Amino acid sequence: MKQIWTTEGRRALLSSWILLALAILAGAGIVAGSHFYLAKEKRDSAGAARRVQEARARLDGARRERDSLHESADVFRTLVERGLLQGERRLDMVELVNQLRTRHQLFALDYDIAPQRVLDLSGGRVFNSVDVLASRVKLRARALHEGDVFAFMAALSHTPQGFYPVDRCVLRRVEAPTDSLQPHVEADCTLEWITLREKRSG
Amino acid sequence: MSQHFIFLTNTRLVSLETRHGRIEARREFAVSGTGVAEFERYLAHMPPKPVHMFTDLAEEDFRLDTIPHVGKGDREAILNRKLTQIFRNTPFRFALVQGREPEGRRDDRVMYTAITNPEVLRAWTEVLDRLKVPLAGIHSAAVFSGVLLEELDLAFAHTLLVTLSPGGAMRQTYFRDGEFKFSRLTPMDLEEGQTLGSMIAEETTRTWQYLDSLRHFAEDDRLEVCVLVHRNDREAVQPALRDFAQIQYRILDIEQVSAKLGLKHPPLGSTAEEVFVHLFLVRRIENHFASAEMRRYDTLRSARLVLNRLAVGAVAASLAWGAWNVSRVFDSSDGDLLLAQQLSGVNREYEDITRSLPSFGVGGATMRDAVAFYNYAIRGFPAITDFAVSLSKVLRDHPGVRLTQISWQATDDAKAAPALSPAPLQAGAPVRAMPKAAAPGGANPASSGSVAALSSGKYEVAHVEATIRVPSNDFRAAIEQVERLAADISRTDGLQAEVIESPLDVSSSTELQGRLGTKEQGQMETRFVLRIVRERRASA
After folding, report:
1. Of A113, B120, B212, B392, whose CB has the highest number of CB atoms within 10 Å?
2. Domain B2-59+117-294 CATH class label
3. B318 to chain A nearest CA, in Å?
4. Does CATH number 3.30.70.60 belong to domain A90-198?
């Protein structure tokens, strides 16, 4: 073996040593290149898998929203038609009250509409996408018969322009001769004129 | 793999080229004259391949010895010293350790051999060196011939192997219990009338006598003489070989021997060189005579071969590794393709769903919240008209009852107390209980509600003020009728009624006034107050 390390031996084996070195370098290059290529592919695969997972999550959310919205679409359509998402139209309200008063033959009708405010709901419940706005309306009416008052209230509640839940009402008999055309009933009622507003548009 | 074998005798040099275990070319050169030059020219045109040289020379000397059994390093030193002492004038020397003595110190048995005249080899080795031919080894044909006996299963206590060499010589090699002991080369110069067989018989008898003189044989020992000859020479040999008590002859037909050794093309003559070459291909032995310096080209060739194989191995291994990685990349790519298809499908379905979603110009969340608010706060909110209708149904069965005031409230508090306006004192009843300081109801009925939170309207609470007409002073009947009215209300549409102000409060804590005159009316009206509560049932 000593001959390998002599000058003659080194010279004779130089090409083989160079070939071996090149082979090792080439081999290392092949291994490293393929390794990096594989690692990149793995990263790409992991990214693709993550994107699929995210897309599936988004799809599940869309499915849930679709199911949820289909259930509530009809109701929402009614709400939109009743102007729940429109702002208050106080002139319409004034005209409506006058119209109903005439229709139900109330002797007198006094009303106060308070400034609109954000309505607090019982239990502190809030909605993320809408603000609930309300104007408190106080009505004081005199009528010949309590049925006229009830009819007026029912008509107001069922008007196709907004929602008017009546939460308080006091009806009193007014002493008067039964055969005279004088008010026999007096009513004091309070209701909320409710509208909704999208928060993003606010 | 190609190899080159040179079989050198005192008169001839036989060149044999092998490829894949078969002899493919044979050429003979004379040792004297122009033989060396012809050999050099021949060798110069041969592709470089490792060369093994067999020597079958008369100048080969053999000595037997014993040395102390020591470690490897010491043994090497002893053997080198001995070889230098015994064969001082030649570099072609070799020591073979064959076994140990059975008795005494159990020394190692050693056989020394050398080509005592190096000049017979030098011309040839110089040619090899000049042409840089890789000399793998120089082997003694006599020593190597023991392998032939082993391969042919010729295991005797005393064996004399007789082989013929190219150029007309006969080699006799004696083995005792398989160990090499002695070898002798005799030129075959047949005298007139002498046959090959008679010469072999004479020479082997002479060898037996020599060995016997060296006390190799006991009285009953017999020398088995194995003669390797071709079938063509058998007739000339066999008749002359007569067995007797001390010698027994065995003819080894060279064709049969070749067949047994797997040599497909048996030699055409009785010389043994082709058999030895084939045997060497089957059972390689170590170098005997060539020094490291003589073998340097073979050493470099082997090193080059190792380096080249390492290079090829490195590239092959890395290619295999790379191919494995690439195959995994392909697998991964297949998976990526599948994922891409899945992603495309999922996105398509998502877009379909998004397109199919109902839209009213607002976001889905707004829609959901609006509907949720409606369901929570509006849809089930109670209405006073419904309450009044339920109450009217009951009052139809109580014509003596006359309502004077209703204070109704939608609330989340079942204990809420809607305010009533204070009732004017009536003159109808001769006896009445005076109202307490904080009677139910206040001065500000409907407007008393705060503007705080909108209730969910879980409860409807109403205070109902009314009068009942009964015969004068019949308070007991009035109380009974009012209690019956409350009971009737409690059986209607989920209403629960209780009397909170009786027609006549007869409790001891209340002031009671009576004004009885001489003229009394036939009927009287008494006031009472009911508290009515209705809890909203959970919607289906």
Report:
1. B120
2. alpha beta
3. 5
4. yes
